[in-house]
Amino acid sequence: LNRRLAEFGTTIFAEMSALALSTKSINLGQGFPDTDGPEEIREAAVRALRDGLGNQYPPGPGVPELRTAVAAHQQRRYGLRHDPDTEVLVTAGATEAIAATLLALVEPGDEVIALEPYYDSYAACIAMAGGRRVPVTLRPQHGENAGFRLDLDELRDAVTDRTRLLLINTPHNPTGTVLTPDELRAIADLAVERDLLVVTDEVYEHLVFDDAEHLPLATFPGMRERTVTIGSAGKTFSFTGWKVGWVTAAPELVAAVRSAKQFLTYVSSGPFQYAVAEALALPDTYFEALRADLRAKRDLLASGLAEAGFEVFRPAGTYFITTDIRPLGESDGFAFCRALPERAGVVAIPNAVFYDHRETGAPFVRFAFCKRTEVLEEAVRRLKASA
Ligand code: PMP
Ligand code: GLN
């Protein structure tokens, strides 16, 4: 293994899902739903397979039906117009979109600013591109409005002459933070002022609760031309195994990302692209029902974790809850998560893996709530019993 990748080892998600299987624990670690997406969309995939749609190499940029559906979705939800031929690229999940974007845009030695804690593939992809990651840490706020917030001065101070791009993620995994319009505006102003590209991972765009609203960075002044927006069918339609994602951006940025993508996978998952095109056209009631279902599950798990003694940072978005384990008399999230299956029959993720500043992330542990209600109830019972 080369030096760029040596530090990364096996992803925490593989490690913890294996532990869940071997200990027969409830897996609230890796973020995947335990019920599949809409029946009619599964049927659409079967139809595509049967009718020979996409069984051979689909077009490099993605099938026209899906590119058109992605553009229509961005227009309908956010008023963002994209040319499906030059401004949309289909990828093998958001994971490939992240990799191809960073490989295409980062020169060796370039600095990439990422919000810390960051989704684990960001660090590995920045490294593969030869870039240098510069984490800007989201700070925990305790009490009534507990949550992790961006310090805009820290962000501004992190920009140097070597900064190539800002890698933003909202709604944010693992903290559940949804950046506010004011924060997004400040990020946009900074990007314009310092002439930076922005890559924004918005795979949880539909998973926002209560008063929170997801606003794409590309909608802010000066951002449309300098922003690469990443989306995925995995989260929105509960098909994480299909690996269909996409990039929307200005033509020259999409062309750059495509240059890298063509040598990573060339193309991906033909029949599923047709099915996801249909999914993106589902009526608003689908998206509202998804949100309502997850909001109820968030509330169930959040109050259960609080009753079990955790400090809970109630998420405004995503399907993750970050907790602080210090009220339980614990301080090392790694040790806690490795012991939890034995102790309680539950698996969670230590947030420290998402930090360069490991000690800052040490007391935080993430639980996923994209699970059936009875599974969450049983997990809560077990956590309370073991507390
Ligand atoms: N970005 C974030 C923030 C994620 O949480 C995930 C999924 N865990 C991905 C990207 C990857 O998405 P996909 O499964 O579509 O590759
Ligand atoms: N995005 C999911 C999570 O954060 C897992 C993705 C993966 O396993 N690579 O849990």
UniProtKB/TrEMBL annotation:
Its main location: cytoplasm. Keywords: Amino-acid biosynthesis, Aminotransferase, Cytoplasm, Pyridoxal phosphate, Transferase. The keyword Cytoplasm applies. Pathway: Amino-acid biosynthesis; L-lysine biosynthesis via DAP pathway; LL-2,6-diaminopimelate from (S)-tetrahydrodipicolinate (succinylase route): step 2/3. InterPro entries: Aminotransferase_I/II_large (IPR004839), Kynurenine-oxoglutarate_AT (IPR051326), PyrdxlP-dep_Trfase (IPR015424), PyrdxlP-dep_Trfase_major (IPR015421), PyrdxlP-dep_Trfase_small (IPR015422). It catalyses: N-succinyl-(2S,6S)-2,6-diaminopimelate + 2-oxoglutarate = (S)-2-succinylamino-6-oxoheptanedioate + L-glutamate. GO terms for biological process: amino acid biosynthetic process. Pfam families: Aminotran_1_2. Its cofactor is pyridoxal 5'-phosphate. It is found in: Cytoplasm. Residues 24-383 form the Aminotransferase class I/classII large domain. Its EC number is 2.6.1.17. SUPFAM superfamilies: PLP-dependent transferases. It is an enzyme of class 2 (transferase). GO terms for molecular function: kynurenine-oxoglutarate transaminase activity; pyridoxal phosphate binding; succinyldiaminopimelate transaminase activity. Involved in the lysine biosynthetic pathways. It catalyzes the transfer of an amino group from L-glutamate to N-succinyl-2-l-amino-6-oxoheptanedioate (N-succinyl-2-l-amino-6-ketopimelate) in a PLP-dependent reaction, yielding as products N-succinyl-l-2,6-diaminoheptanedioate (N-succinyl-diaminopimelate) and 2-oxoglutarate. Belongs to the class-III pyridoxal-phosphate-dependent aminotransferase family. This is Probable N-succinyldiaminopimelate aminotransferase DapC. It comes from Streptomyces colonosanans.
